[in-house]
User: Fold these one by one.
Assistant:
Number 1:
Amino acid sequence: MTISSDSAIFKRIFTLMKKYYNYAETEKCMDKFGFLANRDEVTQEIMNSLYIEQLMSELLNTNSIKYWSESCQSIKCLIRDYGIPNAIRAQIWLIFIKSKIGDELDIKNILNEASNYKDEELLESHSDVFRQIDLDVKRTVPNHNMFASDDNGITKLRNILIGYCICVNPSVGYCQGMNFIAALLLIVFDGNEEHSLMGLIAIIDHYFPPHYYDHHLTGVRADQMLLKDLITCMTSDNKLHFNEQMLEEITNALSLN
Amino acid sequence: MLDSSRQRMAGGQDQKWQKDAADQNFDYMFKILIIGNSSVGKTSFLFRYADDSFTSAFVSTVGIDFKVKTVFRQDKRVKLQIWDTAGQERYRTITTAYYRGAMGFILMYDVTNEESFNSVQDWVTQIKTYSWDNAQVILVGNKCDMEDERVVSFERGKQLADQLGLEFFETSAKENINVKSVFERLVDIICDKMSESLDSDPTLVNAPKGTRLTDNPMPTNSGCQC
């Protein structure tokens, strides 16, 4: 991957680079973890991530998914190597989420319903879902600020899960694992409930294969089999020989954790 | 943030895997499962035993996870491969697949949670359905440090265990009460059952190898036909 030689962009990147990383040519060169490093590699890495950031902010202004998929092969390569820059991750995710779920669902209303569940009959018929969600929200990411104490992060997490599992997709209901996805979305979206619920719907109902979290865990188990096959392929010419049952057990555990 | 959390998780798995694969120094390998309703303390119990640690900040187990610990019992090095399972009913399709080949079960309920106690019979049925006949089971009433919130008495636990023909312990992963004893007792009764089987059917000595990660020669036969 080479950096665009477009001089205007290049200049702006260089300015940003100096600003963010306080990178002076005469100083010792360190990577982002503080290790002494090869100057060229570090420069390349910083340039690449700034380049992504730059291009993405420009793309965000155009706000067009079509533009993304058709003309951004070079960005795709960069993202696969360096990830989406943290500063704009939420914006990027939201564009994709919105493109998946459209605007048929009244997210605000769903969250409102979820936070005011009083209907005894519903509470009764979904008692298992409520019980499991209430058990899990307290033990999802207890080592993160937002969810550490009885803070509103936990309440938000609960609303999102109830919103999805009871209001949006009651046939799937709640499955352990959704709690981690919802919490991660809340972290990325800086506590924004609406965006996080939209993200959860997009991931489970649109990005995942169908029936991922259904009552037979159809999609989860398909994933496990795929992982096992991949590992079998990758280790077939290797000196490692796996006992078949053990391999299955370990890959199944890995795919879920 | 995403990368680092992924790395942390992957790192943990790698370590376990390497340790498991590298440590060939044992006489027997026993596969043990911890089962029971959601939130009774299965993960805490395992961490207390394997790492001697406790935190109230454990996360819910998705699907299944495992730890390995080697113990000395009756002059033998016994490697325990201990599987920690998700309690949610939906994951039973996945967890019951692990019952096959398990030599011991720790069936856990929470003494402060009546429902988890009422589910014990259900779990016993699961074991009978999916595991081999000689699997040994210990019934464990966890969280016995929470006396104020207790709703299941020691006597009721003991009585149920007697009815079901299981050994019984009350434990606390938090206060480290009886955790080690449960595992030691389980290893002992598995060993007893094993020598019983060997006595009655000597061909078992040449039985297929037990659950193992690699095809390297075994130090000693696992002696258990699963």
Number 2:
Amino acid sequence: MSDQIIHLKVNGTLHTVTVVPQRMLLEVLREQLGLTGTKRACRVGDCGACTVIIDGKAVLSCLTLAVEVQGKEIVTIEALGDGDCPDPIQQSFVDCGAVQCGFCTPGMILSAKALLDEKPHPERADVQRAIAGNLCRCTGYAKIVEAIELTAAKKANA
Amino acid sequence: MSDYAVLGKRLPRVDGPVKAAGTARFTDDLALPGMLHGKILRSPHAHARILNMDTSAAERLPGVRAVIVGTDFGDYRYGLKPDTRDEYPLARGKVRYLGEEVAAVAAVDEDTALAALALIRVDYEVLPSVTDPEAALREGAPRIHEDKPGNISVHMNTGFGDVDKAFQEADYIREDRFYSQSVLHGFLEPCAALAIWEAPNRITIWASKQSPYFLYRNLANCFNVPLSNVRLIQPYIGGGFGGKNGGYPVDFCAVMLSKKSGRPVKIVLTMEEILSSHRRRHPMIVRLKTGVKKDGTLLAHEAHIIADGGAGTGVGPSTIANAFYFMNLPYVVPNVRFEAFRVYTNRPISVAQRGNGIQQIRFAADVQLDMIAEDLGLDPIKIREINGAYTGYTTPSGMHVKSCGLQETITEAVKAAEWETHYRPWREKKDQPLGRIAKGVGIACNSFESGARLTGHNCCTAVIKVHEDGTISLLTGSTDAGQGSETALAMIAAEILGTRLEDVFVPQTDSAVTPVDPGSFGSRVSSTAGNAVLIAAQDAKKQLLQVAAQLLKADPGEIAFRDRKVFVKSAPERSLRFRDLARQTVAWGSGTTVIGQGSWGQSIPPLNFDTGEGDAGGAYSFGTQAAWVEIDTRTGKVSVPRMVVAHDLGFALNPLAVEGQHEGSIAGGVGHTIYEHCVEEDGQTMTPSLTAYGLPTVYDLPAEMVSLSIETIDPVGAFGAKESGEGTQVSTIPAIVNAIHNAIGVWITDLPVTSEKVLKALRDKKAQDAAKVEGRS
């Protein structure tokens, strides 16, 4: 199939890229836009490491065709916080010990962000559902759940 | 209470912010100008002779820059010991498992590389294969390695004490068979390597390695270049758990493809490749015979083990030795006999995995202990208390226990599991019918080497550079694959030098810069590299003290370092900032650059792989785990709502990191017990996705994980610390299996504990109970 020129709005910036139609968003983000915070692991939608936020929803970029998400708002881990001032979710992950090897962390944080943006005061079941598609071998998930709940609690008290 | 400024505090890990920001670079995140993408062709057969290979069509495909096959590597083979070098970078002559690497391609992009693989023609003569280790041992079984008759990769036959006499004197003897299945490491970052060959003889490689110096040696040997010309730079590692220790074909091929193409080459395996053909934990059949006195005192263990080694030996000798060592601990067993065969099969290669070789034997021994307690009407806690090892104990094989908090861990675990409330004594309630949800609690104990002693290079080395602004570079070849050791080592340096954790930077391993190190396995880093850092920091401090003594006009022994200040102990107002001291040091007199150095290794004899005599490591951790289980008696589904880890870790260098290790151990242990399984058919893995394989999700793991640290201040480890990340996974399996028995009265001796097995066991038990009733009436 022939190349197509597409326009993707990623982290507020419009990018014009040339892709073959079957190219997944994950590859475009990592290889063409240099956004390597989105992790490539299973490539088949099992692990959640490639999670990004599209129009407010957590989405697996390894199963999303790049050509399909033109005109949508795409958010990757690079948009959260900045060098000196992390997003509260990122801070909670660090403080709670929710990060070990860190490979699942960007995807996990974006799943958490999509949840908290939609539901600032989630129940435990909401948190579990939000990260049920994000696998982590290191932590056993307890500190990840704690970090997400801490973020919500801090926002409530702010 | 200790008076540490940094150690013992719940400090967030130093690499947390970059990982949370997504800016931490893993191997696949790296790219170089002109970089090619590599792909590996794998065998479609479990066992076959390679008759002919034709790569010409692949080479002609536009965009392909190099194609390599086994002969490109000459006769190079690699392995743990000279007599176990049975692995090739690419198959030579024949393939020994389905998925074995046969050829590799480098092309301008992944799509082209994949297209080229499809153009490589390999003619195979399919050979009879054997994928069952017991069948592989039988006479007439297909021979997998021509020079290894009987398909024996490792054989260990040893014993201590008088086992025959002990069995004669025993009041009760039990013999059982246990099976532990094939499970994966489960790291999320696939194996990856990016390599540049610079003619005539320089290699630079970024590779995902928890023990990068294995590969550094492998590459020097394979490509016949001096070690000084192998530059291995370690990016962040997305988990290892034993599955990223040594050099693998992905690494060798990246270098060879670069050598052949003259371009940088990156190879990233797919998860499907990892799940269907990468290294795994050893499946083991353990036949265990145990003799006890009436009161439950252990007299003897006799183990016969068949370990499925797959098609190569890897670190198998250490796995088998570990199974022997930890038949001897955590309990006192005065007489032991052990025979193990590690058997070649036409399966992916078995290697170390978190707890290397110990889960399998402790699953058998700690479940059997509960069986014995049940048979003799003894209390499962009591039988562990009376048999537990203790400080000062030496096993009959010569393992020296220098610190042991086992009894405290039992007490604490029992308390946290609310044992009295939840334990259901089966022998008293046998006749009551099971409800829809049956609940139970179980317990098991563990021990693990804290800092494995090795046969070759054993010591860890650290270099501490004090910069003139008072910040510190800590150079170590010990890697942090996610476990948090980098933070623990930085904390040790900060404590000694009186700086803060954020002042210490630990660059990642770079073999051109960091000291050579054995690697991150055998729970070595905090305990072994920790001592090296301690010595290096003291060395740097001594140099700083000489200048401080002159500036403060005080005796060096009178000067203390704490919280970025250097002051006279008896007159704290006579002080200067650490950064000012650092600056003065380079300027004072003729000036000196402060570089501290320290090396440390376990000063015990090397491991004896033949007899198992002597110590396995510098120290031993001890622990107890308790599990709550809930079993749906209609579906057979087992869940674990609460898991308690009480671990004697000597000293918690960083309690936050320790909790993370305990929780991660539970995750791996619960997965191994209930969910995870490489289902195989004739050498083909039928579970090549994480979902099919069963890596646990947030729904599958205990909602409550209790982590309790027992501090015994070990005389060997840095600041008294012992390991806390591997022993903690050793007893998860038997704790859960014992809890299942406590809940429904059946023993599951074959892992994983699937719903089908639970239902079958319940049905069998019902039939037996009915037969008994009939027999009585």
